């Protein structure tokens, strides 16, 4: 058996993480850290982050760095609130995807056709998306019943959700027993089948379809060749420009769908500022996942879980701090074994300080959980930087007939 195979590494990572989480739950004295409700909320909050990361994956696999995901997601939230208020939640989903695609089309025109620097163009899309959404919201919602200058009226109706009781309930009973690791695993899997929005199910399907399309079809091979070696692909008859356009527009549609989740499932209204930087965090999960769907999904779930604990009680925040400390210490020892001394020593010092804070305090400030996703973003990127392999021409402008 090849102990270095990706599946073995992923399984070892998963079991190690669950063990550290179980230790944190026991020492923080809370069963809610891995309860069905917590895990279901975590999977839900992972959806917009995962969709943004998946959008970035599509774009960068074709060689286009889409920093504008945040702006496209903002446009998606407005589209969802505007169309959902008038015609219902499914119309809101369609409106969100359409607005995200329009933002992506503009981004594709300036980057793919005119060769504008992708980082500058993406930043401009983020500013434009924010300003345009605010302007349109004032026009559309200021005089609407239940609306305002920065908020839409409620969406007409709710998207359906599903619970598979014969799986979720027995697992929830097992989780409540508080057994080491076993109860934590039961709580996690129970959350997978509890109050799942249809958009959550759609997101899982999109992750699977992305993996299959990009790595199992000739279309995916051509699209990835546009990001790895566009000049070579062009000599083989691949219309590189067209594939870059397709990838960026799919990227924008996924970002818009992420906005739909926030506006329709998350709050049932469009509200200014509700993306809260999730487009950027989505890009971080894509990098953490090494431009692969599975890794991106795992990263999004981690961030969704951290985000969920902001809504829970103080014992969960203490558990989060201890869990983060144990993860950092574990990464430090792994890094020391691999010879990465500077980063490992920094992780060891920070982890030890967090353990000290956990032991010294019984009342953690809520702000600890609020900043945790952003701190985790930096730590993830610092940890993952040694093994990353982005598409070869990601971020480089390409014109037909050029060779790199």
Radius of gyration: 22 Å
- Strand order in the sheet with the most strands: 1-2
Largest sheet: 2 strands, antiparallel
CATH topology call of the largest domain: ABC transporter involved in vitamin B12 uptake, BtuC
Number of helices: 16
Write down the domain tally.
Answer: 2
CATH architecture of the largest domain: Orthogonal Bundle
Structural classification = mainly alpha
Could you spell the SSE succession in H and E letters?
HHHHHEHHEHHHHHHHHH
> Could you list the spans in which at least 5 consecutive residues all have pLDDT below 50?
none
Tell me, briefly, the overall form: globular
Mean pLDDT over all positions = 89
Beta-strand residue fraction: under 5%
Q: What is the number of E strands?
A: 2
CATH class descriptor name of the largest domain: Mainly Alpha
Distance between the termini: 40 Å
Kindly state the percentage of residues in helix: over 70%
Q: Can you give a write-up of this model?
A:
The protein has 404 residues and is mainly α. It has helices spanning 6-28, 36-61, 69-87, 89-113, 118-141, 165-175, 182-192, 198-216, 218-228, 230-235, 240-266, 278-288, 293-308, 314-338, 341-360, 367-384, and strands at residues 161-162, 196-197. The chain has a two-stranded antiparallel ribbon with strand order 1-2. Helix 1 (6-28) crosses helix 14 (314-338), helix 2 (36-61) packs parallel to helix 8 and helix 9 (218-228) packs across helix 11. The longest helix is centred in the middle third of the chain and has 27 residues, at 240-266.
